[in-house]
Amino acid sequence: MAGGRAPGERGKYHERKMVRHLRPYGFRRVPSSGAAGGDYTGDLRRAASGAPKAIEVLESKYRKGGQRNLRRWVCQSGAHGLVLPGDGRSEEPLVVLELARFVALLEEAGYRAPEPEPDAETPGAGRGPTPGVSGGVGASQAAVSPPSAPPPSGSALLPL
After folding, report:
1. What distance in Å separates the CA atoms of residue 25 and residue 113, rounded to the nearest whole number?
2. Beta strands in 27-119 (DSSP E)
3. DSSP letter, residue 153
4. In whole angstroms, what is the distance from residue 61 CA to residue 46 CA?
5. CA 113, CA 57: separation in Å to the nearest integer?
6. Closest CA to 20 of 115, 113, 127, 144
7. Contact between 29 and 15 (Cβ < 8 Å)
8. Which of the pair, 77 or 37, is modelled with greater confidence?
9. Residue 49: closest CA among 71, 72, 28, 68
10. Average of pLDDT values for 130-159?
11. What is the mean pLDDT of residues 54-65?
12. DSSP 70-102
């Protein structure tokens, strides 16, 4: 395709960036979510564990140049978020937050990814560090540190 990567590849790239921030809260990327349906809808989905949470499925949308109006409105007057009213009949209002503030909300609400349980069928599971890997944690299991506190009022957007 002339002009760079295909739109689907750009979408996957940005979905993976979001997962890096949201993995500690149980969110994973859903491959081919637009084509699947059912339990495979949504670009990012929390693994089912225990009681359902209020936030289980997220969509990720990338637009060239970002979402300029949304970003300007969120940062206006030091606001912590943006509420987009629905039409008053069938549309629910929407809320837009900076990623750092959304992560802080997930922390406050007690969202955490379930700890992986040792699997008896996995060789070496529960037997200490994996040889050649620092601390026995594979690259796919490396923890991402969440922000320690919500950003101060009027802060710049979180660079991704």
Report:
1. 5
2. 27-29, 44-46, 57-58, 81-84, 94-97
3. T
4. 18
5. 14
6. 144
7. yes
8. 77
9. 28
10. 40
11. 86
12. HHHHHHGGG-SEEEE---SSSPPPEEEE-HHHH
- Residues 130, 24: Cα–Cα separation, whole Å: 21
- Rounded to whole angstroms, how far apart are CA atoms 29 and 31? 6
CA-based radius of gyration for the chain: 19
Give 142 or 100, the one with higher predicted confidence: 100
Which amino acid makes up residue 107? E
Tokens 């320690």, located at residue:
148
Burial 45-80 (b: 16+ CB within 10 A, else e): bbeeeeeeeebeebebeeeeeeeeeeeebbeeeeee
> Smallest Cα–Cα separation from 67: which of 103, 19, 14, 1?
14
Give the strands of the sheet with 44-46, arranged side by side.
27-29, 44-46, 57-58
